[in-house]
Backbone:
């Protein structure tokens, strides 16, 4: 039986996965993010780099931007970020700068992960250090990424 925090984490991660599905439909790498405060959803985001042709438009950045607008300031103290893939160095820096309290991610990123896979940015002596929870609905998050890249490989094959 799930306890309350596991149920809440899974519920919010499912919202992040729904955002990742939107990215998938837009032919973006399927990464989704949700920012909550006091168990209330404040902002959503998903990857938009390809469509916008903008390297900054990661799911986390979009969600942080939306949360800042919704809350009327850049300090997101007390907020939780749920994201389907381990944040990269850029996103980890934005998490530090926005003072997000907790980062919950699904799949680890062995190519660009900055929360322990390649390096742990939060282990450095910055002025803010969020709590990190990894592996929430990890299989679901990883499967979405695998399915996306498999579909790309299939679409690039020459037709017979």
Residues:
């Amino acid at each position: 039986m799930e306890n309350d925090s596991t149920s809440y984490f899974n519920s919010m991660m499912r919202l992040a996965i729904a955002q990742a599905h939107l990215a998938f439909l837009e032919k973006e790498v399927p990464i989704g993010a949700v920012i909550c405060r006091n168990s209330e959803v404040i902002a959503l985001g998903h990857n938009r780099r390809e469509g916008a042709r903008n390297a900054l438009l990661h799911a986390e950045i979009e969600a942080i931007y939306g949360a800042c607008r919704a809350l009327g300031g850049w300090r997101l103290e007390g907020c939780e970020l749920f994201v389907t893939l381990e944040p990269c160095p850029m996103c980890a820096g934005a998490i530090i700068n926005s003072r997000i309290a907790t980062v919950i991610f699904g799949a680890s990123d062995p190519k660009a992960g900055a929360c322990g896979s390649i390096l742990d940015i939060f282990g450095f002596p910055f002025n803010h250090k969020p709590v990190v929870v990894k592996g929430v609905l990890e299989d679901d998050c990883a499967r979405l990424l695998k399915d996306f890249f498999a579909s790309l490989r299939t679409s690039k094959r020459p037709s017979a």
Remarks:
- The helical segments are 4-25, 49-52, 59-71, 89-98, 138-156.
